[in-house]
Every structure is written in C-alpha cells, then in structure tokens.
Predict the 3D structure of the following.
Amino acid sequence: MICEYNGKFPKIDDSVYVAEDAVITGDVSIDEESSIWFKTVIRGDVAPVKIGKQVNIQDLSMLHQSPDQPLILEDGVTVGHQVTLHSAHVKKNALIGMGSLILDGAEIGEEAFIGAGSLVPPGKKIPPRTLALGRPAKVVRELTENDYKELDRIRKTYVDKGQAYKKLQP
C-alpha cells in the first residue's frame, strides 16, 4: 500500500522494487534501484524519510521519525530484516544488522557495520568503517577488506534481486 498522508504522497523512482505487502505513507522519497521488502512499513507522517540510491530495506522493518527529525538513509545502505529505524542518519554504504534498533539522532558512519540485534541509543555516533554491536552498541573494531567485500556483495545482491522481483510485478 502506497498512500498519501496529510497532503504528501511518497515519491518513488520507477526503478524501485516495492513488495506488494509493504506500506509506504506520506513524506517519503526513495531513489533509484532501491528495494523495499515484504511487510516493511515506512511512515512519513511526522517528518520526512529520505532513502537514497541502491538502498535495501529488508523484510519486516519499520521506519518512522519524531517531529522535526527526519530519517535519512544515504546511497548504498543495507537494512537487515526486522530493523527499526527512528529519526536517524545512516551514511553511505553502511549496514544495519538484523533485529537492530537505531534511535532518534543516532548517526551511523559511512561503511559502518552494526551487528545483528544491536541498539544504537539516541544521539549516539558510530564512526565510519567500524563494527559496532551490543545493547547499547559499542565499537569493537575497524572493518577489514573482507568486511568491505561482504558489504558490497550484500548490497549488489539486493540490487539485482530487487530488479528481478520488479520484473515479476504486473
């Protein structure tokens, strides 16, 4: 379901794959070759949601915000299954692991990796190119070349998979 809220209708590039059971409402923009997977909810009914190019929002994720605090996902971001993102800023090519919660004012640095099940509390800044995990999330190490290759592999897989699913839609 893609619908208007309070006079604002989502702006979704024609190349984006949106699963039929996803919900996208209000002030949401989604750029080229991104994918929104099954049972995901993106509500732009409090502040804007800006999703860049080649971003994948995996199954059962929830994206929302607080007043005057947009949610921003820069190009190439991977959001794992069952993630909650709330008024955060996730920078280019970062990965948010499955089941994580990223809260108001949190900033995830470029190419950072948030481990599965992590909680990034309000206002917390995770530096670029680091692995952070836990509740609350703490940086445990810098990423390796193998980590970067894995982030890239996941991102490319979801771009390809999203385009394949898009071709199956009526």
